[in-house]
Automatic annotation (TrEMBL):
Keywords: Gluconate utilization, NADP, Oxidoreductase, Pentose shunt. It comes from the Bacteria. The lineage of its organism: Bacteria, Pseudomonadati, Pseudomonadota, Alphaproteobacteria, Hyphomicrobiales. Pathway: Carbohydrate degradation; pentose phosphate pathway; D-ribulose 5-phosphate from D-glucose 6-phosphate (oxidative stage): step 3/3. Catalyzes the oxidative decarboxylation of 6-phosphogluconate to ribulose 5-phosphate and CO(2), with concomitant reduction of NADP to NADPH. Residues 179-468 form the 6-phosphogluconate dehydrogenase C-terminal domain. This is 6-phosphogluconate dehydrogenase, decarboxylating. One of its GO terms (molecular function) is phosphogluconate dehydrogenase (decarboxylating) activity. Belongs to the 6-phosphogluconate dehydrogenase family. Gene3D superfamilies: 6-Phosphogluconate Dehydrogenase, domain 3, N-(1-d-carboxylethyl)-l-norvaline Dehydrogenase, domain 2, NAD(P)-binding Rossmann-like Domain. It catalyses: 6-phospho-D-gluconate + NADP(+) = D-ribulose 5-phosphate + CO2 + NADPH. SMART domains: 6PGD (SM01350). It is an enzyme of class 1 (oxidoreductase). Its EC number is 1.1.1.44.
Length: 471
């Protein structure tokens, strides 16, 4: 057996990951359910073909790898992963490592750890981000499992990972589901990031009447400032591309209904289960769901029109304000994502290393940015900070940008421009930073109708209101 590692699943991600592995000098065995795809892959491997063993059967695949075998499964998430594990199990030997590298729900990952317990096989749940390009030339890699298992696969995983100023963007983050959980939250933040970018695009398109190319120039300018990130870069790029058939900007002919596969929704579900607010991510997931209701939206448009047209206040919004508002929104989205991870870390006993997570997101992944380097620094300097916005650097950033977020959200509201994620970010800040909130009234209502009791500011213990028999 010549191969040092195996990859099952030669779809977009698996094929590129396998080439990346070969490119880094490792001999890799590959297998795909549909054999034609394996043959295509082998034929296209070119000069890397010497380090690729393409296998037509799972038996050949396992035999081609030197024990103890690391086997990466990169197939469609869900049931296909269970099927692959079941098919592999009888063929593998003690100490072999099964690595699920797809976008698994971490609860499935937790179950798979339990299922494989006592089998002699080792399991790793690994989040991979960076899309096709990342998989081929260096993704961000988030590993969950036994530390001992990580130690065995660390050389190959760090070799294929993205590098940020020479530092590999691959790390062991904790036991069992830690890697897939962190990947899920990465995607939740990605949803919020993308949504907020789309919201400011909407303000420029629908309120400032800017065309795609002019908007592209704005994003392009932003990409050299504090918003410098992959998502801002590609936004500028896609806005510049024209459709061959119509000659129009391609974005103007694309249907305004966004797809989603689950990770954003899972981020929200998990944050809700732990009682940690993630308003920007929630708004982003809801916005995708609303976007998909096209026919209904068309009806509502006819019925209600676009609000605010009568008090349209041209010229109140300036593009520079949008940049700072977006930065403030981004602070909220990331603060929320990291707060959800902190809560999960406590709940599942993972001890998630926040600074390391920010560090391995600085390159390779979809949310890579200069901003993440600042987050890594903040968590290194103040590792125990309760919330990112309370760290000195992000407090300052928020103080500076918050007035712009406020102005944009206010103007958007007056003009009927939907900015739900930015508004969610603002609502979060305004609630978070107010010492005396309004939940005293909620507690009074709860006690009135359900005798739930409340605490008093001036006395210990549980109290009930003098509702005089009305409650
Ligand atoms: P593709 O759709 O390109 O490929 C899917 C792969 O899964 C194919 O190899 C397919 O085999 C295999 N497969 C599907 N069903 C089964 C099954 N029942 N048994 C065995 N194999 C099966 O997917 P991607 O490469 O995009 O995604 C793979 C994983 O990576 C997913 O979990 C995805 O969420 C995740 N991911 C994707 C990213 C992306 O940007 N695309 C980024 C990060 C993670 P066959 O050829 O036989 O159909």
């Amino acid at each position: 057996a010549a191969a040092e590692i195996g990859v099952i699943g030669l779809g977009v991600m698996g094929a590129n990951l396998a080439l990346n592995i070969a490119d880094n000098g490792y001999h890799v065995a590959v297998f795909n359910r549909t054999a034609a795809r394996t043959e295509e892959f082998a034929a296209a491997a070119g000069s890397l073909g010497d380090r690729v063993t393409a296998c037509a059967t799972l038996e050949d695949f396992v035999a081609a790898i030197r024990p103890p075998r690391p086997v990466i499964i990169m197939v469609k998430a869900g049931e296909p992963v269970d099927q692959q594990i079941a098919a592999l199990k009888p063929l593998l030997e003690a100490n072999d490592i099964i690595i699920d590298a797809g976008n698994a729900n971490f609860r499935d990952t937790m179950r798979r750890f339990t299922d494989l317990d006592g089998s002699g096989l080792t399991f790793i749940g690994m989040g991979v981000s960076g899309g096709e390009e990342g998989a081929r030339h260096g993704p961000s890699i988030m590993v969950g499992g036994a530390e001992e298992a990580w130690n065995r696969v660390e050389p190959v995983l760090t070799a294929i990972s993205a590098k940020y100023q020479g530092e590999p963007c691959a790390a062991w983050l904790g036991e069992n589901g830690a890697g897939h959980f962190v990947k899920t939250i990465h995607n939740g933040i990605e949803y919020a990031d993308m949504q907020m970018i789309a919201e400011v695009y909407g303000v420029m398109r629908d309120h400032l009447s800017m065309d795609a190319e002019t908007i592209a120039a704005v994003f392009s300018a932003w990409s050299t400032g504090p918003l410098d990130s992959y998502l801002i870069d590609i936004t500028a790029d896609v806005l510049m591309v024209h459709d061959a058939a119509t000659g129009r900007p391609i974005v103007d002919v694309i249907v305004d209904a966004a797809g989603q596969k689950g990770t954003g929704r899972w981020s929200v579900i998990e944050s809700q289960m732990m009682g940690v607010p993630a308003t920007a991510i929630e708004a982003a997931v809801a916005a995708r769901s609303l976007s998909a209701m096209r026919a209904e939206r068309a009806k509502a448009h006819k019925r209600f029109g676009v609000p605010g047209q009568q008090n349209r206040r041209e010229g109140q919004l300036v593009v520079d304000d949008l940049e700072k508002a977006l930065l403030a929104g981004k602070v909220a989205a990331y603060a929320q994502g990291f707060a959800v991870m902190a809560a999960a870390s406590r709940e599942f006993g993972w001890n998630l290393p926040m600074a390391t997570i920010a560090r391995i997101w600085r390159a390779g992944c979809i949310i890579r940015s200069r901003f993440l380097d600042e987050i890594a620094t903040a968590f290194t300097e103040t590792p125990d900070v309760e919330n990112l916005v309370l760290s000195p650097a992000f407090s300052s950033m928020l103080v500076e940008t918050d007035p712009y977020l406020r102005r944009i959200v206010a103007e958007a509201a007056l003009n009927g421009l939907p900015v739900p994620a930015l508004a969610g970010a603002l609502g979060y800040f305004d609630t978070y930073r107010r010492e005396r909130g309004t939940a005293n009234l909620i507690q009074a209502q709860r006690d009135f109708f359900g005798a739930h009791g409340f605490e008093r500011l001036d006395a210990d213990g549980e109290h009930h209101g003098p509702w005089g028999g009305q409650g």
